[in-house]
Amino acid sequence: MTTSQDELPSLATEREGLLRLRPSTLLRDLQEQAPICRVRTPAGDEAWLVTRYAEVKQLLMDERIGRSHLDPGSAPKYVDNPLLDMLIIPDHEAARDAHKQTRAWLAPNFTARRVLNLKPRVEAIAASTLDSFVESGPPTDLHGGFSFPFALLVLCELIGVPLDERDRILEPLQQMGGVDDREDAEGGMGAIFAYAAELGARKRAEPGEDVISRMVQNGATDEQVGPIAANLLFAGLESVASHIDLGVALLSTNPGQLEAALANLPTAVEEVLRAAKAGGSALPRYAAEDIEIGGVTIRAGDLVLIDFTLANFDTQAFDEPSTFDVTRSPNAHLTFAHGIWHCIGAPLARVQLQVAFSALFTRLPSLRLAVPIADLQMRGGGLADGLGGLPVTW
Predict the structure, then answer these.
(1) How far apart are CA 166 and CA 273, in angstroms?
(2) Which residue from 59, 210, 282, 345 has the least number of CB within 10 angstroms?
(3) How far is residue 316's CA from residue 56's CA, in Å, rounded to a whole number?
(4) Taking the chain, what is the end-to-end CA distance rounded to the nearest angstrom?
């Protein structure tokens, strides 16, 4: 694909506007043209967009891709958000070591046994949240009434945020998500860091069975606890809430799929994860060295956007990827990334989605959208996009 610098396709419009439950025409065209395309990011910088499954998986396994950049101050940006910028450091080896250390601290919290032990609590939180949601009566907003508070309460339980203190993280998280006011976003991030450090100090004195307690017991400093807790909160909250919203939208508007989904929720959840496009889903990383791949040369320092949504809709990897099929198996989607970047929290996210869909459609079998699906709006412009709301009835 030959494109002049002034004619680079812009991804800015991909993060706003009407809901799309499959890649846009622009993204599909780019995928057809080449596995790796030069684009302009929502922040206005140039980047490589990785569009196909094979190349996405290959780069996720490549240790030359990471969070480092020799000059963080001038590094090209995906979205101009301090949470991402904070992750850019000059030393590639140091960045890789920090990534491995973070995974080592977090991995024990997401073992099969720990997630299984946490499941009854997740189910209790879902039931309690659903009680309040049903009490509000239809029509109402699923996102604000169930998906978001459910995901938030589970994360508070996991991380170690006392339930009576959850309001201390809500506004800072909302500030962190925006890109319209960088100063505001930096203030939100600072507030989360300070609160996490405060929690760390309290957990050192009185440890519990939670992420922050285990981190500080294993040597994490206050400075290390803050960024990790902020990332867990930000990534885990919006991702799970958005997939609940979009899963309900998909299940309630695809005849015959709901019954099959409830008969085999683990398989159905994998298809929701594959097919639910929750806005901007590209993982921004930098090349530490020149990389030859997909017929192009990615230069050291270039920004690389690894697009999971496009990989999940690649016809070379999935049969009829635009068809939502809750019985699809195997389903080797890349929603949770792969290799060294695979999401540590994936086991818990899967359980949350299974519990949420079971609770919602068992209690409210006639749950459905209160507006045409074509009228749903994406909330764009932030670091993690999703639906602005999901009006439902029953």
Answers:
(1) 27
(2) 210
(3) 13
(4) 49
Query: Which of 348, 375, 382 shows the shortest CA–CA distance to 278?
Result: 382
Close Cβ partners of 166 (under 8 Å, ≥ 6 residues apart): 152, 153, 156
Place of tokens 């909250």: 237
> Which residues lie closer than 8 Å to 131 by C-beta, 6 or more apart?
none
Q: Give the residue from 226, 208, 218 showing the smallest Cα distance to 158.
A: 208
Pairwise CA distance, residues 342 & 327, whole Å: 24
CB 236 within 8 A of CB 345: yes
Instruction: Please give the C-alpha separations between residue 59 and each of 50, 197, 283, 318, in angstroms, as whole numbers.
Output: 9, 34, 11, 19
Show Cβ contacts of residue 304 under 8 Å, excluding neighbours closer than 6 positions.
47, 48, 50, 59, 65, 284, 285, 286, 287, 298
Beta-ladder partners of 48: 38, 304
Q: Which long-range contacts (CB under 8 A, 24 or more apart) does 58-64 make?
A: 58/293, 59/285, 59/291, 59/293, 59/304, 59/306, 60/306, 60/334, 60/337, 60/338, 60/339, 60/340, 60/341, 60/342, 61/338, 61/339, 61/340, 62/291, 63/96, 63/340, 64/287, 64/288, 64/289, 64/291
CB 36 within 8 A of CB 49: yes
- Which among 175, 218, 217, 219 is positioned nearest to 195, based on CA atoms? 175
Cβ of 348: how many Cβ atoms within 10 Å?
A: 22
Residue 2: the pLDDT is: 45
